[in-house]
Design goal:
By secondary structure, this protein is α/β, with parallel strands linked by helices. The chain contains eleven helices and 13 strands. It folds into two domains: about 170 residues, Thiolase/Chalcone synthase (Peroxisomal Thiolase, Chain A, domain 1), CATH 3.40.47.10; about 150 residues, Peroxisomal Thiolase, Chain A, domain 1. The chain is about 35% helix and about 25% strand. The strands form four sheets. The chain has a five-stranded mixed beta sheet with strand order 1-7-6-4-5, with helices on both faces. A four-stranded mixed beta sheet has the order 8-13-12-11, with helices on both faces. The chain has a two-stranded antiparallel ribbon with strand order 2-3. The structure holds oxa(dethia)-CoA (UT7). The site of oxa(dethia)-CoA (UT7) has 21 residues, from helix 2, helix 6 and helix 8.
Length: about 325
């Protein structure tokens, strides 16, 4: 049995910066409210003439390949996590594959929202561990800004979600370092607490004027329910990963939570009794980019030299589904 490691990580965010003051101009909100309740100061929104989910992912992937010194032709398989694909079908995995010139290799799409990157990482880890593939390209990429209700009615979610992409090269590791374990969970009882209902297929008519004018194409979130479940599940799934590997919270060198809300991250940090220098957050600059948030954060943490060889890195996520997941990695 082999082990797998993150050999390189990269990210891309759209150029357009949208500050809280910009949002004040289009809805009834304030910079103070957004900063106090979410920690977000600004986010990136895509440029419809330039950015697509798959081309943002391609840019992040090229950075990850360069940093891991992996040639594009060495990639054996793609796992693409997004809940905002370019097309209704096929998924964005094949579009990125085409852009990279990798026609022929397998491309799998994952729709596990905020937990999507860890689910994708887990799948890549299994393929590498069994020896089936040597280099798997894992990405998380989202364009959320086009599905947000930017009127005052949608303000509790439209101030949070944003756009971006992150990518990792998962490679066979010969020295025992790398992904120690991953832990995946879901509870469909809460599917409608955070979702985009349409265009759903289980309708007599998939698209009608009435549907288009209604609210069901926008992201709908019961923020309080998400918050309450998130803080419990985050802690549980981190403890599960630590116990599985015989570790305790003080062994963690760096904790990178899915960037859902700074208050959630701070709450979990407190529960785990982790000092500030062991937790990396960048939601202030990018908002909540769903499946992209963890790889963007790992990439930035690596750039800022907060991740050193041998560090114990803990990742955890919670989101729509509900789904939640963790990974423990010896960097
Ligand atoms: O990746 C996982 C995805 N989601 C999350 O992690 C979200 C988890 N939940 C949250 O982050 C929080 O629940 C929110 C940030 C979404 C909301 O914060 P909250 O502290 O739970 O506020 P609330 O929904 O209880 O609303 C409090 C008040 C309400 O006004 P009233 O009824 O007290 O008069 C809202 O209408 O704040 C109002 N409000 C806003 N005010 C200004 C809601 N959104 C806004 C806004 N600006 N953007």
């Amino acid at each position: 049995m082999y082990t797998s490691k993150i050999a390189g990580i990269g990210h891309y965010v759209p150029e357009k910066v949208v500050t809280n003051n910009d949002l004040e101009k289009i809805m009834d909100t304030t910079n103070e409210w957004i900063v106090e309740r979410t920690g977000i100061e600004q986010r990136r929104w895509f440029n419809p003439d330039e950015d697509t989910v798959s081309n943002m992912a391609t840019k992040a992937a090229r950075m990850a390949m360069e940093r891991s010194q992996t040639k594009v032709e060495e990639i054996d398989f793609i796992v693409f996590a997004t809940i905002t694909p370019d097309y209704f079908f096929p998924g964005s995995g094949v579009l990125m594959q085409r852009e990279l010139g990798l026609q022929g290799i397998g491309a799998l799409d994952i729709r596990n929202a905020c937990s999507g990157f860890i689910y994708a990482l887990s799948i890549a880890d299994q393929f590498v561990k069994t020896g089936m593939y040597k280099n798997v390209l894992v990405v998380g990429a989202e364009i959320q800004s086009s599905a947000l209700d930017k009127s005052t009615a949608g303000r509790s979610s439209s101030v949070i979600f944003a756009d971006g992409a992150g990518a990792a090269i998962i490679t066979r590791s010969e020295n025992g370092k790398g992904i120690l374990s991953t832990h995946l969970h879901a509870d469909g009882d809460f599917a409608e607490e955070l979702y985009v209902k349409d265009p759903g297929s289980s309708r007599k008519v998939r698209l009608s004027q009435e549907l288009i004018e209604g609210p069901t194409f926008n992201l709908t979130m019961n923020g309080n329910a998400v918050f309450k479940h998130a803080v419990v599940r985050f802690s549980e799934v981190i403890q599960e990963a630590l116990q599985h590997n015989g570790h305790s919270p003080e062994d963690i060198d760096l904790f990178i939570p899915h960037q859902a809300n700074l208050r959630i991250s701070n709450f979990v940090q407190k529960q785990m009794n982790l000092p500030d220098e062991k937790v990396f957050n960048n939601i202030m600059h990018y908002g909540n980019t769903t499946a992209a948030s963890i790889p963007i954060a790992i990439s930035e943490a690596w750039e800022k030299e907060k991740l050193k060889e041998g560090d114990l890195l803990c990742l955890a996520a919670f989101g729509s589904g509900f789904t939640w997941a963790s990974a423990l990695i010896r960097w």
